[in-house]
Structure formats: structure tokens, C-alpha cells
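Standup notes
- DV: blocked on the single-chain target, sequence here:
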Amino acid sequence: MSVAQPGAKRRLSINPTGPLPVKQCCQQGSGRMAGPNDPIVALVGAPNVGKSTLFNSLTGSRASVGNWPGTTVEVARGVWRLGGFQTGAGPDRCEAAHHDCQCEHDCQCDCQGDSVPASGQATVIDLPGAYSLDSASPDERLTGELVVDVPATEAPDLVVALVDAAHLARSLFLVSQLRERSRRLVLALTMDDIARRHGVEVDSYALADAVGVPVIVIDPRRRSGLDNLTRVVLETLARPVPPARPRGRPLDQSDDDERFSWIAQAVERGTQSSGETRVRRSDRIDRVILAPVLGPLIFLAVMWAVFQITTVVAAPLQDGLDALFSGPLSRGASGSLNGLGLGGGWVEGLIVDGLIAGVGSLLTFVPLMVLMFILLALLEDSGYLARAAVLTDRVMGWLGLPGRAFLPIVVGFGCNVPGIAATRALPSARHRVLTVLLIPFTSCTARLTVFVMLGQIFFGRWAGTAVFLTYLASILLVVLGGLLLRATLWRDSPNEPLVIDLPPYQTPTLRLTAAVTWLRLKGFLQTASGIIVATVMVVWLLQSIPTNGGDFAQVAVQDSLYASVAQAVAPLFSWAGFAQWQTVAALVVGFVAKEAVISSWAQTYALASEDDLLGLGEQVSQAFEASSGGSTVAAVAAFMVFFLAYTPCVATLAAQKREIGWRWTGFGVALQLVVAWVLAVAVFQIGRLFG
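- DV (later): unblocked, structure below
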């Protein structure tokens, strides 16, 4: 990889030796992570150009990355270690490097270098994807605000603009606007291999001369060119802030014409075409993948395979973990407590029947989560999931939503919270509200654990198909909910054409797949170790409080406050076939966190079981059989539909309130409860007719 400077010969322009860099002038900024005197480097560029992947490579953190547009919807921050590289800047440039310092504190310069960090690190921020600084959507507008519409003392010290070599002209519009501001700027050229496959050769040196800023060719997916990027960033930080390029008049259409003319000249000077018209591999694949009939069928087949592989492969691993928690671990904890004189009392009940039974049952699903996250990461990194927005564009049009509204909905299938945050990419406030109301109908991975458990208990080798059908039901709920809202509250909602960048198909990389998998697994484990533990302890406390005058923690679970509250609510679900109080109590706990349903069942049945050999699955099965009058499958299906549609977790409600306010959030909760109850009753009443 090479570093191209304006007017430079084709060689590295940075001296690898020389004086150590020193800290920047004491510029005051907000939210700096590396240190108050260290620089801030902002990553900007169009969606799907590789910003988040580069951010992860530079900082070693695990921000959300994916091979589709709209991944980054909030500002991610991290520390970029710049140590080991030196600039070769001399004392003669020290005064010039600090000429613009206007802070109140003393500006120290030891003239060993320039405005580069003595600590050898910087704060790097990954801004939302933007094609222009004048965009209307909230996330793209945020990029413009943080890069240019801030006081000089709070602006980034340097901007790294990522440009797609395969779509150079489109990427350079943002660069043309950045040049018109007084900012240090470096261009990072990505997708160079894709451009060459298209018959386009980008001359980074000629491009650097044309745009007037350094150009570095990088491949963040394979960590190629990052050393050169680090060197050129250090050298650019050591230079004075350049003046803004004049544009002659206030922003208007004529200025855009000037920008397009500048872009055309830069592309002409910086690229060479082989003249061959090549049919791209991605285009050939898309002819099949995006076919009107075959495309949706392929998508459904792929998702069915994902769920089938997940449930079949994970089953023996789950059985092994379940045996570990319910056997040696529980017996070992009981033995240790007995040795300490704490056996047989409330302490043993809390630890064994509470924490180990509750959290342990949830952790048995870790192998399933890992497999699911790996498979989805492979689909994302390959570029396949981005095609889902195209396949569903017509359906989104029926709902009065643009096709790109499907992207936040897809994110919602992983977790509703980031899916709701991703609606900021939609330019229309009406579209954002409607999408936020629909996302809680998507089946997040927290619900997945419950669906898989029920599938394995009641459907055996068809568990994968059963879980797949719940996801189809989730999609159907989104569609029906959208049609209902459009027919009532948004009758005049206009349709918008789909405008989206489809990334090229790529071979997934092991590093990126592992990073995304760990990011999602870490979130799952953090939930289990945080809110789930707290929920388990609250449930145990309620199960320990007697309602018949007994002693604390010495009460049968059916005589506890926990059971009494659930028994009062249970009759509401008699028509749905699951009026058993243990089942209803689990739903109440699920309002806090959906995966806590498993913990609730494990705690309840661990305390209530008279036969230690009777597993959790058998006890759940007996409960559904008793409450449904023998129509067990119909009752389980009704429960799964209710669990899919009823109120989201408290974290999702908080995200909804932040994006659309309490009024719309309350409306969404009421709508989901009504829809969930009606559908559950309908499923059970119809299902019982068939036995």
C-alpha cells in the first residue's frame, strides 16, 4: 500500500525516524477519550464504505459493523494508539503549527515536533454515514453538525474521509464540501480491489494532486494500509490547519455545478479505465437473488437453514451445559454451603434455586446464540442481507414506508433497541414514528431463546421449522400492523422510491465474523449478568414471601406472593389455553427482559418440583397440557404468538420514548397488548378444533 501526497513522487513521503511527537496545544473539546490534550480524528464517508470496520481496526473496540448501509446510527468513540510512528517535523514548524491556538490556558510547545500527541494516542470517532453535509435525515445531519457546524475549539482536529474507489465520483461530493471548510483532511481510499475488478484503476498519486490532500489506499477488512494511514495522520496533525477553499458565493445550485465540475476533473485525473465493459460477479448473482419470485423463495430458504442448523447443532451442547448446571454445579454449591453451615436455609435457596437455576438455564443457550450470530455475521459480511431491502421494497410500499425502512426492521430482529435507533436514518418524521411502532413486533434474539426452548420441548426434530415459522409470523405481524396503521392514522402517507447502495458480494473474513459474533454474544452475556441476575433475585424474593402466614423462604412457591399475583392475572388467558399461573408469571417477568422467562420457569419449577429427576422441559409440558385441557400444541402456539406480539422489554420502551415520546410509546404498548391477546385467543380456539 502507498501514501500519496499532493505533488509527491511515488514513494512514502513520511520519514520513519526523527523527533518524537509532542502533545497538541491545549484545545478544549468535548467527549475526548484519549486525553484532554490529545487530538480528535473523525471518520466520515458514505454508508457502506468501511468506516465502522476501519474504526474497529484502529481502536481495537467492537463497534457494530455490517456489510449494509445504515449500520452506524450513533457516534462511536475509541482510542487510536499512534505510538511507534514519528513525523520528522522540525523546530522550524513549531510556531506555525500553533498559530491558531486561542485557548485560555498556556500553550506549551517544546519544539521537538508539532501539534501531535505526546501520549501517542488520539480519540477517533465514527460518524454516521453521509453522502453530503446538507442531508435531511437526523443521522446524516449529525455528521454535518459535528464536523463543520461546531465552534473551532470543539471541532475534530483532523477528518479522515473514506472514499469508495469503485464509486469515486459519488464519494467525492462530500470531499468537495469538506475542502470548503478550514479542516485538516486525509482521504482513505477503500474498495480498490473492487474497482480493479470493474476495470477501473485508481492512481492515488494523481488523485492526491487533483484533490489537494493526501490519499492512502487501505483495506480495513484485511487491515492493509493502516500503518501508512497512521503515519500520514501524524504528519497532517503536525501541520497548520489549512484555510478553507473559496467557493465564490453562498451555497446554491451554481455551487453544486462547480462541485460536480471539480469532481469530474478529479475523477478524470485520478482514474484510468480499461475500456472493457465487464459484467460484475455481483450483478450476475443479483439476477438470481433479486428475481421477483425466486429471490424471496431463496431468502426464506436461507433463513430456514439458519434456524435449522442452529437448533440441530446446538442441541447436544445445550444438553451438556444443562447437565452441568443442574448436576455437579448445583450439588457442589449445596455441599460448599453445608460445609459453611449455610445449607438448608434461605442462602442455599437464593444461590441454588435462584441464581444457579435461573441464570444457569439461560446460559445453556450460549452455544445456540454463538451459532446464530456466526451465521448472521456471515450473511451480513457477504453482502447478502442488504438485498433483503430490495426484496421487501414492494411490501414496504404497501405500508407507506420507503424500502430502506426495512434496514432498521432487520436490525430489530437482532435487538429492538438498536433497530429503533437506526430509524434516525429515515428523513421523514412520519416514517420514523411508524417504523418505531412496528419494530417491537420483530422477534429479537432474546425472544429466540424462549422459542427455541419451546420448539425443542414440543416439536422435537421440527424445532428449527417451528422457530422459523415464528419469524414468518413476526414478519406477518409487521406487515399487518403497518397496514392497520396506514389505513387509520397514516392514510395519506406517500410512497417513496428505494435508493440504496448494494455492496458487492465479498468472501467473509474470519476476523470480522469473529468480531461481530463476540460483540453480540457479549451483549447477550452482559444482559444475563446484569438485569437477568437482578430479575432472578427479585423473583426469588417474591417467591420467598408467604401469603398464608408462613416463614420467609420456607414457603411453597404456590403459596408465595409471586404465585398470588400471577393467579390473579391468569384467568385473562383461559381462552388462550395457558392460564397456568407459572406461565403467566413468566410473561410478567418477560416484561423486564424477554430472556428472563426461562429463568423464571427454572426458578419456579426448581422450587415446586417434588421429583428431582423431572426436568424443566417435562414440567413446562405438563403445565401447558393441564391449562389447555389436552390441546397442548394449540396452547403452545398461542403462547408463542402472544410472547411474540406483547409489550417489548423495558429497554425497548426507553428507546421508543427517546425517539418518539411517551404518547406514541404508550399507544404502541396498548396496541401490542390488544393485538397479542386477540391473536393468542384466535390461535388457540382455532387450533383446538384440529385436536
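- Follow-up: The chain has two domains: 11-273, 294-490+515-689.
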